Amino acid sequence: GSSILPTSLSSVGKATVKVVSQDPTSVKVVLRFRTNYKTRFGENVVIVGSLTELGGVETPTVTDVQKAAESGKGARMQYIKNDDWGLDMALELAPGADPPPVVQYRYCIVDDNKQHPPICEGGSKNGRILNLAGPADTYPAVMEIRDIWKSQSSLSSIFLSSAFSDVIFNDRLRSEQGVKALKRTSSTGNANKDDGLITVRLTIENPRVEPGHVMAVIGSCTALGNWEDGKVTPMSGLNYPLWEVEIEVPVQQMPLYYRYVIMEEKTKKVLAVEQGESAHKVEASPQDLEESLSVMKITDAGGKTCNRCMVVVNDDPDPAVSKNPLFKSQWRGAGVAVPVFGLRSDKGMGVGEFADIKGLVDWCRKAGLKMIQLLPVTDTISHSPSDERDSYPYSSISVHALHPMYLRLTDIAGLSAELKADVEKEAKRLNDDGYYKETQWDKDLKTELDRPIDYPEVMRVKTGFLRRAFKEMGAQVMASEEYKEFFERAEFWLRPYGLFCWLRDFFGTANPDEWGKLGTGINKEKLMSMTEEDSEFYKGISFYWFVQFLCHEQLLDASKYAATNGVVLKGDLPIGIDHDSVDAWYHPHLFHMDKKTGAPPDDYSEMGQNWGFPTYNWEAMQRDGFSWWRSRLNWMSQYFHAYRIDHILGFFRIWEMPSSATG
């Protein structure tokens, strides 16, 4: 791989340009992709993206691009020289398109000898963005896109993660000013080669820009201030973490030299200028322009054209950031780790709830903390709703379902006045100091300062109220558009989860071995027949769907509140699942059900540890592309911006013992 801008900009041949149809109202644009990558024998550079010619992958994530490349999709680039690769293609655009067309794409390496699977570049989750914004008569004839290969292990890739780009560095106010920087600094929309101007779009993918700050450019041309102090040109953060600015440069001022700048958005104060012996450089001579425009001749079969060439330069953020004095030190941040059940407040019911996360977010913001790490919040009810054995947060019966203990009942819209009054009365009782003094808890200082949670009583009371709420308003909630949208997305796990819970209650145990024929697994056809609306079991099953919708709404609300306030919500990913769980019951082929996992003897435990979880059947998981893991992580991502992986070693090696082992 390489982080070098391509320098071989010659045409790669007319054969690679698709001749567009004759349409007198269309606008013709030729895209000339260029990148630099040192391949090995048999390897080729392929572009996969949202255009049909690029494979038609709307959101070119690494996973989707790999799949597309494996199936032969994408456009192959041609080798030019000096490790430079090129691809020329023509687009036909509808005039006045709104919103303006955007091309998303990603580079990958395909080995014709099949020595390795496709290797994708890194960068933003959904790939590169090529903005074709502008009125129809200002589309360039040729856009020459000079890209640097983005390594998946680069320093900047860390800051492209959701925690940084979506929360810590995200500034929603940037979008208000974003369009301004995309407007050309010279009103030369119909400029052509005779005007002696070249359009240059500078772009850089840099998420590490604090809220209230923006990136800018200073350089050697008039549009970039001619290196005069204070004369900087702000960039648009509309497509953050991508920063863009578009300028017109007279040919006589080429080559163009420039440096990146960090400035305050409101005051325009320059905070730091990129250092280093040499500045960035863009070369484009009149000969380059003439050659680029000659490519256009094969598309002159009709439609509007414009004798204007645009050079789009996508710079490497790593050296640009490392040379900025503002980023000399590594980024540092602090956070707090806490279980949700410990966030008790007067508004709760004897236990911390999802809504209490907001209060902690407010405190974190005042204290300057950037992250809240939580214990697992998934459902652990494998015995009965009020059994204390189910209070262990790492023994999940579902990797998707949330624990109803964390629901704030008073926040459920539409409760009757009578039910709401009863809820408030019980909440007051469970929150009262006197309640814990009258129970069996030891009366020591720790108990006084950190009151224990009466899990069985909290769950008994909440479950009863949720049953009443379902009877009162279940049909109304499940008829809402919000619920229907949730069910459509969650159906793949919600149906088996609801049936599992109903069978657990019916048989009095979550152990499928005691469910007769239903305990040996269930196919999709049987699952659908038992969970459809006309099923005799539907009412009992749909109660659990109703509860999960309420849990989803409240945790999602807390997550959005945290993100809006710049605080990352970090979820916990347990290494195992309970033997008596919906995942093991519905997907038994993905687990070694005759095995248990734990830890070998050590100084911490002389006899070792038996966690009781079945081990993963990694071979079976690999055969379907790890779809169970993908769906699990994808579902968690709507609530959490980062994950803690419990017992990371277990993903590479695990202590396994027979299921008959008791210790």
Automatic annotation (TrEMBL):
The biological process GO terms on file are: carbohydrate metabolic process
A molecular function (GO) held by this record is:
4-alpha-glucanotransferase activity
PROSITE patterns associated with the record: CBM20
Pfam families attached here?
CBM_20 (PF00686), Glyco_hydro_77 (PF02446)
Kindly list the places in or outside the cell where this protein is found, as annotated in its UniProt entry: Cytoplasm
The reaction(s) catalysed by this protein are: Transfers a segment of a (1->4)-alpha-D-glucan to a new position in an acceptor, which may be glucose or a (1->4)-alpha-D-glucan
User: Which keywords annotate this record?
Assistant: Carbohydrate metabolism, Cytoplasm, Glycosyltransferase, Transferase
Tell me where in this chain the CBM20 domain is found: 23-151, 192-303
Question: Recorded E.C. number(s)?
Answer: 2.4.1.25
Top EC class, one word: transferase
Any one GO CC term of this protein is: cytoplasm
Q: Origin organism of this chain?
A: Hanusia phi
Q: What is this protein called?
A: 4-alpha-glucanotransferase
The similarity comment for this entry is: Belongs to the disproportionating enzyme family.
Q: Does the keyword Transferase apply?
A: yes
